[in-house]
Amino acid sequence: MGLTPMMQQYLEIKESCKDCILFFRLGDFYEMFFEDAEKVSKELELVLTGKDCGLENRAPMCGIPYHAANSYISRLVNKGYKIAICEQLEDASASKGIVKRGIIKVVTPGTYTDSSFLEDNKNNYIMSLYVDSNKNLVALSFADISTGEFSCTDTQYDLSIILDEISKYNPKEILIQDNLDDKICEQIKERFNVSFTRLPDQMFTTDAEETLVSQFSNFDKGEYTDTLIKACNGLLSYVIDTQKIPLPHINEMEYYNIVDYLTIDSNSRRNLELTESLREKSKKGSLLWVMDKTNTAMGGRQLRKWIEQPLIDKKAIQKRLNSVEELLNNISAHEDLKDALKEIYDIERLVGKISSKSVNAKELISLKNSIEKIPAVKNILSSFKSNLLNNMYSNLDELKDIYEILDEAILDNPSISVKEGNLIKEGYNKEIDELKTAKAHGKEWIASLESNEKDVTGIKSLKVGYNKVFGYYIEVTKTNLNLIPEGRYIRKQTLANAERFITPELKEMEDKILGAEEKLVNLEYEIFIQVREKIEAQVDRMQVTAKIIAELDCLSSLSTIALENNYIKPEITNSEELFIEEGRHPVVEKMIPSGNFVANDTHINTSNEQLLLITGPNMAGKSTFMRQVALIVLMAQIGSFVPAKKAVIAVCDKIFTRIGASDDLAAGKSTFMVEMWEVSNILKNATNKSLILLDEVGRGTSTYDGLSIAWSVIEYISGNSKLKCKTLFATHYHELTKLEGILEGVKNYSVSVKEIGSDIVFLRKIVRGGADQSYGIEVAKLAGLPEEVINRAKHILERIEKENGSDINIEDISNLREVAVDKVESNEKENSTEVVVEESIKESAINTSVKSSNVSKNTLEVDVSMQMNFADIEKQNLVKEIASIDVLNMTPMDGFNKLYDIIKKAKSL
């Protein structure tokens, strides 16, 4: 036995898309066979059947109705599958033998554009990643087929930069070289839910420059590296290969430099809850939830981009702020603007549908109605004077010619399907008008026929009907058959309780009506295509208008939240000062009753108040305070007003956070390991213009080890002249408060707590000075631990404090700082930040983990689990201090002072 011709055709087509599920069109169904059928039946819970295929065993088969395919495709794409759509390419009735079939589109997670699959206010990105290991370069390109956006960047290879850019765009699919190291993919998969597609190298390299020149109006090969060109070519080639049609709306390649925007690494984006909450993974509870008061889907997507990519250019930030201020000061005009924006549909995605030939007539009417509102928007903009709003007014194209084409051609309430007629307005095409008249005349004749036949026969129940099988017919119930005049009708069909008849005149009119209908449907479709092509020729103009509308909607949203939430205009500077008076957390204040949020001041710079050491109990508000500082800075650099009484914001280049941690058991990483990895990443990549938030560094290990690491990190940030950036450092190690006065720029702050008897009340106020205790037991009491557990904890604490002492004398181990600073200075010459940090932390951990001072350092490096008390540490440090004295380079007075200091320390031991 051999395969049937149809199954041979199936397997030939399947061979060209082995990595896809093949939807094979058979009549009114898409059928899947063999492994595809087994896979889909399981994923979609469909019945698995079989089909004779010419082999000994039946081929496994399952199918779905073609008209319901989108919902099934969406479910499969969401699971990461690719779908190849195979259609019949000719009329089955007109073909001889097997109907010609071919793949018309490949649907993948990054290229699916069905409106039921896409979120209105969120882009659907596909990304290309190309690594040139010889040159140590990496290039990234991103596209959203639904809107036509195409952007790219390149830089020196650094995995952390790749991860940061992925977190910014959150693509659904990443295209990579066939030979790319699996370790890179594993690192990405650990952090993002994304599917990978490996492409052969020729997809990136073949005809790269020619492909980009033909697609992008602004492409100049001399401006880009070979690595970037390959990344862009791989992405564009893949998009064209899957969509099977030209895409004229992807017409501009936007290059951006990573350093042109505020850098926020993937951990910080998550910790700050910029676009989704940590717990629920939803928009509610995020910064986007507070800031998004946009009126259009385009504006919603643009605002998300602004939040993901804050500015670092003072002039650009100031332009946005001035525009927001002008809208805020013109409430009446702003309200009119919002009303006009509410009537504008998603022009960006409508343009994408026009370009991909998938737009229907109703969507063109939505485009027409949107264009109708643009003159009103432009008229409102004419009254504004700020640079940004004035430029928008000058560049906003009203698209009047496109409106006129649509208004003349397309019915106001057309059919959804473009192949069922009822699309074109009367008067637009003479032939269509004639066919509509013929069709209407025929139907009038049919309607009068029923009335005439009732009069002639006297049969009141007689009716004229229609179906696709028999066409028009006259139906008479069997009880009335004797009333029909002999020879008047020709019998056509017998039913259980009636007979159906025809007449020569009825069939003649049927031919005219159906002929007119078929011609009308075909002609209307042809005219519709002509109209669509006229509109398609203007996609670049519509995209410019859509972009202006989107940005205007963002500015409107920023003005709205400023008014509703009592935000103020920040002062933007390039200085080192960050000053916030009565700052508030923009999200938390919206989640609690109005007026209950406790505002706090912040003053931080890179000199005398460079690192704010914040102490206080859990649940007192330390993390909220730190996050609000970062969010206020971020909002200001977006161009938004901020929740404060006054704000002077020094432009930051990067924001880093290490707030909270959870075990990454799947990757074999403990809480402490994750914490140390994040801290290491921050210290390697921060600059003196960065803002760092560190919360409870060192809490994941033993008390003394954690204290040592926290202290060493503080020392490194404040002592490294190349770093020395604005830092908020929250800790439970209240012993660290003694670093103020020892380390330059370290200042103590704490959260106010009021004690009422044995209870405490969190005042949520950040005040100058450190906390003298952590109130851990009181917090446990507030959490509802049993009273006997609380009382026992107090007893144990008293006993530990009596035996070991409640304080650690930081001043007496200050020689560790000298060791660390020396290493910083020596390593700065070698530009090895990583070595400095690792050695500094290691030195601190070793020196605070010794059981006995007689153990050598080599032994300690093997076993650092043993602990020593702080009296032994003090003795060991005194010996070190004496041994390190350089007598030959000291003045007599310096020697006298040093001897006095040593004697004083020795007496205290």
Written description of the protein model:
This protein has 909 residues and is α/β, with parallel strands linked by helices. It folds into 6 domains: 103 residues, MutS, DNA mismatch repair protein, domain I (3-Layer(aba) Sandwich), CATH 3.40.1170.10; 135 residues, MutS, connector domain (Nucleotidyltransferase, domain 5); 116 residues, MutS, DNA mismatch repair protein, Chain A, domain 3; 104 residues, MutS, DNA mismatch repair protein, Chain A, domain 3 (Orthogonal Bundle); 292 residues, 3-Layer(aba) Sandwich (Rossmann fold); 39 residues. It contains 31 helices and 27 strands. The longest helix has 33 residues. It is elongated, with a radius of gyration of 37 Å. The N and C termini lie far apart (98 Å).
State the main characteristics:
DNA_mismatch_repair_MutS_clamp; DNA damage; 7-stranded mixed β-sheet; ATP-binding; alpha/beta; Nucleotidyltransferase, domain 5; mismatched DNA binding; 46% helix; 27 strands; MutS, DNA mismatch repair protein, domain I; 31 helices; single chain; elongated; MutS, DNA mismatch repair protein, Chain A, domain 3; 6-stranded mixed β-sheet; MutS_con_dom_sf; 909 residues
The largest sheet has its strands arranged as: 13-23-24-25-21-26-27
Oligomer: single chain
What structural class do you assign from the helix and strand content? alpha/beta
Integer-rounded radius of gyration: 37 Å
- What is the share of helical residues? 40-55%
Low-confidence stretches: 662-668, 823-870
Quote the average pLDDT.
85
